[in-house]
Structure formats: C-alpha cells, structure tokens
C-alpha cells in the first residue's frame, strides 16, 4: 500500500513527543515510549502520523523508528486494535504473547490489554493501526448469533493475513483506507464508513479464533432450548415495543422464573438486561445513521423515561447520547 491516508497528516516532526501526543489524541488511552526503547537517540529521525477518526473507529498510519507502549483507557468498555505492517518489521507484544508484524501477520489487541510495538531495526517502519469500539464487536456478534456475547470477545493475538480468512480482513481494511483516500464525498459519509467497518468486524469474528468461536461455526447456537429460541425471536421482533418479563415468558411458553433461569444459564444475564442492551445497541446505531433528534430516536425504540435512558446509555457506552449525536 503506497502512502496511505495522504490527506490526513496529523504530525510529522523530528521530536518523538509530537508523535506520542498526536497518537494519544487520535486513539485515546495512554501512549508512551516502550520501556525497552525510550526517547534517547531518536530525535534525529522523522516521526509521522496520519489518521482519521469517526464514530466507532479510528485509523492511523505510523512511520517512525520509535517503540511505543499503548494502554487502554481506564474508563468505559474499551476498544480493540488491529495492527497491520506496511513496511519493515515490528516486534509486537500483548501481555506475555509476542509476534512480529509485517505484511503477512497482524496483531489483534483486546479491550483492557496493554500492547508494545518496537521496530526490529532502526529506520522508519510503517504500519496501520485500526481501533474498533467494543460495542460494535458485540453488535456484529449478535447479528451473527442472535444474541449478545455473554462475556467480552477475546481474540487470539497473531492474525495470519496470508491465509484465505485473514486475507479478507486485510483487503477490507485496505479498502477502508482507499475509500478515505479517494476524496469522494460519498465515502466521507458516516453511513458508508460504518458499513465498511461492520464488514471488517464480521470478517474478524469469522476469521480470527476467539473465546466465542464455537458459537459462530454453524451460525446461531443450535443448543439453545426451544423456549429460549422463542424468547429471543420475540424480543428481536418486538424490541421497539414495551416488553415485560411476563411477555417474554408467554412467548417462550414457560414461567417467568424458568425463562429467567434459561437466560442466565445460557446468556449470562437476565431477560430484561438482554432487552435493555439490545435496545441501547439499536438506538446507538440509529443515532449514528440518522439526523433525527435523540429523544425522537429513543421514543421510536420504546424508551419512556429519557433521564433513566441517558444514564443507562452512559453506563453501556461511556458517553451520553448527545455526545454520540455530536459526532454525526
């Protein structure tokens, strides 16, 4: 890939501190020099960052000899990172795991993980870093399985970009960059960027082993009892309406206590928590994809108390609905 994100330069400086500050603004969290590298002797080279950010993601192109440590933000549900080499080789670590990033191997970092990236040799290595909001991974997992993950999806670290599955992830990431570079007005629209990002997340869920891979092998989990499948289908169909536990139990053909036990045993949360999370996910998607007022969208999805809704939304996404709407 030649000179990606050419119109999105954030900094190019001989001072590595400028790179660290710019990367922190783009990706959030804490980005510092690697303890094994430091700043000494690196003020003679160029350190460049190009990048773009939108709701649910940020992408950056790094060209620097600097080794960095990236720690996730302390608050919120966190983000995933996918790092892909463009030129040269980078020794990458995630906790005790280690791999070498290049054009054929990427690294996937999960929410809460600390990562280190160190060029193998002096000189300007180049790589792409893609940050993906954790809520989007949950949403795409639910689209594939019919339910939200019961715990955080945690991917294996090295991603083989040369194999058939990994190649799809690489092509989709490069396609996102090419769309941004095209300058075409349509590709600057949030709807198209989000559509492309959803494709990347879906490909990642299907291509890269993770803690919930078994649930994706044959589509929606066939092991759910009939009553639970009926309850999930009822919720999906009626998520914009007022739903009670009694309604869910009636659709499932069992008692509220039985359906609650099934949800907790199979999905790890109560029926009403599942309803709340799915509704909040739908509202967030609608906020990002339309220009309607937040209250209009919330009422459309069955919200009756805006104050309580705002608090639940903040707890789930670490920001108020108005902050999400401001990024449209």
UniProtKB/TrEMBL annotation:
Residues annotated as domain HTH araC/xylS-type: 229-327
InterPro entries in UniProt: AraC-bd_2, AraC_XylS_family_regulators, Homeodomain-like_sf, HTH_AraC, HTH_AraC-typ_CS
Keyword Transcription on entry: yes
Keywords: DNA-binding, Transcription, Transcription regulation
One GO MF term attached to the UniProt entry: DNA-binding transcription factor activity
Keyword ATP-binding: no
Gene3D superfamilies noted in UniProt: Homeodomain-like (1.10.10.60)
UniProt protein name: Helix-turn-helix domain-containing protein
Species this protein is from: Streptomyces klenkii
Lineage: Bacteria, Bacillati, Actinomycetota, Actinomycetes, Kitasatosporales
